[in-house]
Write a structure and sequence with these properties.
This protein has about 240 residues and is α/β, with parallel strands linked by helices. The protein has two domains: about 1-55; about 55-205, Trna Endonuclease, Chain: A, domain 1, CATH 3.40.1350.10. About 40% of the residues lie in helices and about 20% in strands. It is built from nine helices and eight strands. A six-stranded mixed beta sheet has the order 1-8-7-6-5-2. Strands 3-4 form a two-stranded antiparallel sheet. α7 links the parallel β6 (about 130-140) and β7.
């Protein structure tokens, strides 16, 4: 994959999304193309270069990691989820830019009740392209199997009690400080296409750091690559 394809992607996205110069610079510095390209095959990479980001399925939407330096929060073990949630609300426009096209904010801490027990998903969106609810939960610690089970409950509830008959299945995204991809793989069914887990970064890492993290993600996910396919952004 050569640099011309990456340049073409940013040109298309800047026009489609009406990015200002600062927004475009931020997307380039956060390696948006490489993060979107993470799990795509050769044909998927070509579509990015010729059409920009197209959204046809949940996997087309989410990135890993999610970079949120705009929150102004320090990388700290003392960080609490309510603090991060409030920072996202205070910087909602920037958060929506990072999440990508199609997200409409519905609410925060929207209560759901099961036989007298109350639960509060952190953030709820509606995705106007995928026509479904998107639930986001924040975890400032390493992801656990219990977090995945809780998200499954939220998704099931929205599918059965909230979503309309014309809505597609609800999607759940857990933003976590760290995760074990083997835990995610074994907790969730192979056919699961509704629950995702992404690491978040509160500081914009250097290009080298971010590339290293993306390569690690490829190794952990064991993403199949066709013979001859090269890592996005590398030159032949």
């Amino acid at each position: 994959m050569d640099r011309a394809d990456i340049r073409a992607f940013y040109e298309i996205e800047a026009i489609k999304n009406n990015w200002a110069a600062r927004e475009l610079e931020r997307q380039i510095n956060s390696l948006l193309y490489e993060r979107l390209a993470l799990s795509r095959d050769k044909k998927g990479l070509m579509r990015l270069a010729t059409k920009g980001q197209t959204v046809h399925a949940p996997a087309d939407v989410f990135k890993d990691p999610v970079v949120m330096e705009f929150l102004g929060l320090p990388e700290s073990p003392k960080l609490v989820e309510t603090e991060m949630e409030q920072a996202m609300i205070n910087n909602l426009q920037a958060f929506l830019l990072e999440m990508g096209k199609g997200f409409a904010f519905v609410g925060r801490q929207k209560r759901l009740t099961l036989d007298g027990d109350h639960f509060y998903p952190d953030l709820v969106f509606y995705h106007i392209l995928l026509k479904c609810y998107v639930i986001i939960d924040l975890k400032v610690k390493k992801l656990t199997h219990g977090d995945l089970g809780q998200m499954q409950m939220y998704v099931n509830y929205y599918d059965r009690e909230i979503a309309g008959h014309k809505d597609n299945p609800t999607i759940g995204l857990i933003l976590c400080a760290d995760k074990n991809d083997a835990v995610v793989k074994y907790v969730l069914d192979k056919k699961n296409k509704s629950i995702f887990a992404s690491r978040y970064r509160l500081q914009l890492p250097s290009e080298a750091e971010l590339r290293t993290e993306l390569r690690r993600e490829v190794r952990e996910l064991d993403v199949p690559r066709k013979a001859g396919a090269k890592w996005p952004g590398t030159q032949r």
